[in-house]
Design goal:
The protein has 10 helices and 20 strands. By secondary structure, it is of the alpha+beta class. It has 2 domains: 187 residues, Rossmann fold, CATH 3.40.50.300; 122 residues, Beta Barrel (OB fold (Dihydrolipoamide Acetyltransferase, E2P)). The structure holds adenosine-5'-diphosphate (ADP) and magnesium ion (MG). The site of adenosine-5'-diphosphate has 11 residues, from β2 and α2.
Length: 411
């Protein structure tokens, strides 16, 4: 069984199934981390079972709860989650501004933080880009970028500053002052400053959160290009999934201090390990379904009719009486005027090339569908739909987690 795919968790409560799914995801990440150590050379960052909490015993907040993941050299990782889920705490612990209560951080196979071992932040070889840029206002751009290059000669420093400004697309701006630059330009200077000493690891804490949405998307792609060109190993944190998809090779979805899944963007979307990830990433709903034996394999009975010939359908024994919840993404539902299944449009959101329709079946289930925007139907109209499910994602029957509801996505 794929440990990231909890559909075969049977005979346990939903809560336990969720817990087990996270345990599975953490175990996988840990195993990955351990493999990294065993493989030796290529693990640039390895975080293992990291726990950090704040406050006194009674009112303790677990900001990080057994966080484990691994980054290879030259890889860009991204921690993705809502405000308060522990992203900054993770970065601060890796950078050395916070001590973990348990677990450890390895940088280039050297333990830099654990309850027993401690390396001071300035000796970790880590560069940090903060949310608010934190440029020195009294220094010009060259002074800011060259700030960490104290051991260099003046000529070496000038050369390195020139290289860094080229890399971030600001050649010749060394004499300008931060207040003369736009937010996006200041952010690039902050990036150049963090990269100038060639750190072993670069940490970026929501570096685009103060910028306009348009600029953020462009910069996200540019940042990836800059980091890859420099061969940097980086850990980026954000609450914005499009930013995470644009930047990260590997993305970790966090909720309340716990890592639910550490995976590439495609797998997070198509193979979510927990209901939380399924709900947090992309647009989708859960509908009740039943797995029944069919020929040599199984078929899924759903409110949209039976789904057959599925390559990755769980076996009926995976759930009590084969009953489960099926994840249906907006792109699993295709609008087709000739389809026998009809659904009523409850809401529609224009997205340029397509509409995101919220639909209701006669049986009462809600669905979401991406439909090309030339199919401009009215709210209240009944339209034909058919399922086109490439990836079967099922979970034990149960209430949604208390996080975002799919409806909150529909704007
Ligand atoms: N210095 C601190 N003292 C007490 N609680 C803190 C401190 N830093 C963070 N927390 C708490 O830890 C949790 C995670 O915070 P943080 O890592 O800043 O989240 P994020 O960066 O994902 O928004 C939150 O509940 C926050 O209130
Ligand atoms: Mg934060």
């Amino acid at each position: 069984m794929d440990a990231r795919f909890p559909s075969a968790v049977s005979g346990c409560s939903v809560e336990n199934a969720g817990e087990r799914a996270i345990e599975g995801a953490n175990r996988e990440a840990s195993r990955g981390a351990n493999r990294g150590a065993a493989d030796g050379a290529d693990a640039a960052l390895q975080v293992e079972e990291l726990c950090v909490s704040f406050g006194a015993a009674r009112s303790k907040i677990a900001a990080l709860d057994r966080l484990s993941f691994r980054l290879r050299r030259g890889e860009i990782g991204c921690l993705l989650g809502a405000s308060g889920c522990g992203k900054t705490t993770a970065l601060r612990t890796i950078a050395g501004f916070l001590r973990p209560q348990s677990g450890c951080v390895h940088i280039d196979a050297q333990c830099v933080a654990s309850p027993q071992k401690w390396t001071e932040p300035e000796r970790r070889g880590v560069g940090v880009v903060f949310q608010d840029y934190a440029l020195f206002p009294h220094l010009d751009v060259a002074g800011n970028v060259g700030f960490g290059l104290r051991r260099h000669t003046a000529a070496q420093r000038a050369q390195r500053v020139r290289e860094m400004l080229e890399l971030v697309g600001l050649p010749g701006s060394g004499a300008r002052f931060p207040h003369e630059l736009s937010g996006g330009q200041q952010q690039r200077v902050a990036l150049a400053r963090a990269m100038a000493p060639a750190p072993r690891l670069l940490l970026l804490d929501e570096p685009f959160s103060n910028l306009d949405v348009d600029l953020r998307e462009r910069l996200a792609h540019e940042l990836r290009g800059i980091l890859k060109a420099a061969g940097a190993t980086a850990l980026f944190v954000t609450h914005d999934q499009l930013e995470a998809f644009a930047i990260g090779d590997q993305i970790g979805v966090m909720h309340q201090g716990r890592l639910h899944q550490w995976d590439d963007a495609y797998s997070l979307y198509h193979r979510p390990a927990t209901r939380f990830v399924a709900d947090f990433i992309g647009h989708g709903v859960f509908v009740p379904a039943r797995i029944v034996p069919c020929g040599d394999g199984a078929r899924l009975d759903t409110p949209l009719g039976p789904l057959e010939h599925l390559t990755d359908c769980p076996l009926p024994g995976a759930y009590p009486q084969g009953r489960c919840d099926l994840l249906l993404r907006a792109d699993d539902i295709v609008h087709d005027d000739g389809a026998p299944v009809r659904a009523q449009i409850v809401r529609k959101a224009f997205r340029g090339s397509e509409f995101l329709y919220t639909l209701r079946l006669a049986s009462g289930e809600t669905l979401l569908a991406h439909v090309p925007s030339h199919h401009n139907h009215r709210v209240g109209e009944w339209i034909g739909i058919r399922p086109e499910v490439d990836h079967v994602v099922t979970f034990p029957v149960g209430a949604d987690h208390p996080g975002r509801t799919p409806a909150a996505d529909v704007r």
